[in-house]
Amino acid sequence: MAMISQWRLRAAFAERLSRMYGREVPAYTTLVDVSREVNEDVLRARGADAERLGSIGRVTAERHGAIRVGTPRELRQVARVFGALGMCPVGFYDLREAAASTVPVVSTAFRPVDGEELARNPFRVFTSMLTPADPRFFDADLRARLETFLAARELFPPELLALADQAAAERELPEPQAERFLQLAVAAFELSAEPVDKAWYETLERISAVAADIGGVHSTHINHLTPRVLDIDELYRRMTERGIEMIDTIQGPPAWKGPDVLLRQTSFRALAETRAMRTPDGSVVSGALRVRFGEVEARGIALTREGRALYDDLLGRVDEQASQHPSEPRGDIARAVWERHMPGSELELAAEALAYFTYRVSPDRTRDGSRPPADLGALVRQGWVRAEPIVYEDFLPRSAAGIFQSNLSGEGIRDTGRQGIAYDAAWLSGAIGRDVLDPFALYERQQNRSLAEVARALDLTGTPSPLQGRP
């Protein structure tokens, strides 16, 4: 009997989810088509350089999804489903603090962590969990009602969870079980046709549209499915030309002449989707909800902790200057700040230890009989070693909050006079029942492994440090 490995399960799940979401949200299919067109055009124009942060095959197939759940129990079940696909929780994001609007969730992202697995299929799912215990959003009565509602629902059938546990333990499934797992997993994230309790949904919606989307229904669903594009500014222009309403901005770093870093994101606006609504008298009427949108992303180089500190500092400078010059386009302000303060080349990022790279020995250079230098900067300068940028696989809380906020119809309600509940990565690890991994540690491990291989290949004493010498 044929066995289906975890990465093939992951690829099949991503592909089936994409088809399902395309049926539910036709504008998503347009987004995918335009992304593919832009990627093909960029590849023709830039050649091999276009694939510096991933092969065109990987970029074209790449997706990240987004889902929302209500409780730690539901989050633990999600972790079991994605664990079947070889995906681990990476990073902690507190969108409560990152958004100006009311977004009462904390989040993590499930994704592969091994470089080979990412190359095979880099599917990731940004997963947010509601925070009913935070008194800034939910008073004691509403919290009790909300927690009772959430405790009574079942998002994932026991059969799906049992198959997920089997796949995680054995790292594969027999083909019949794999097919059943995929059917159940995709169905768990379909938009339910069950009528929504109109009064209950509106009660939560007054607090937050995100809270209503999570706690106002008996199921979960894909909120967006995101393709990756090589030129997000060009995609934004082409989508607008096709008459699709985009949000006002591209979140993340500005478009500029230097290297792409971290993540840039935008989306088309949440669409009004027809939903059945049950009124207090028991009758069912037709209504419309705006909770799902079409996001797209462009990925850059992963920054070190020092690089992220610089990025955050530059965002603060842009905020300050934008407040002082409200008539000046924010994108122009950001571009000027970046060009003054952000290193303008990959080599400068490497030299200042601001970004992560995989270092590889150049075979031609090792055969000329000379002795390699001891420090990394000289190794790169003299052609002994190539520095290949490590792509950023994760998310930015401010950008994620900006996307959420741009697709909300109202600001919601937050009692700023009350103290919020503290959440962090350690709390989330306990809630999920497995470690939430530190993305910086993952990138650093990948870089350090490559440096150790360089040292072995070149017979160097000690491992070259990215802080030694300047490329």
From TrEMBL:
Pfam families assigned to the protein according to its UniProt record, in alphabetical order: HGLS
Which UniProt key words apply to this protein?
Dioxygenase, Iron, Oxidoreductase
Give cofactor(s), names only.
Answer: Fe(2+)
Would the keyword Cytoplasm be found if you checked this record's keyword annotation? no
- EC number(s) per UniProt? 1.13.11.93
| Lineage top rank: taxon | Bacteria
One GO term in the molecular function aspect is:
dioxygenase activity
Enzyme class, broadest EC rank: oxidoreductase
Tagged with keyword NADP: no
CDD domains (alphabetical): VOC_YdcJ_like
Q: Which family does it belong to?
A: Belongs to the 2-oxoadipate dioxygenase/decarboxylase family.
What name is this protein filed under?
Answer: 2-oxoadipate dioxygenase/decarboxylase
Organism of derivation: Streptomyces roseochromogenus subsp. oscitans DS 12.976
Record lineage: Bacteria, Bacillati, Actinomycetota, Actinomycetes, Kitasatosporales
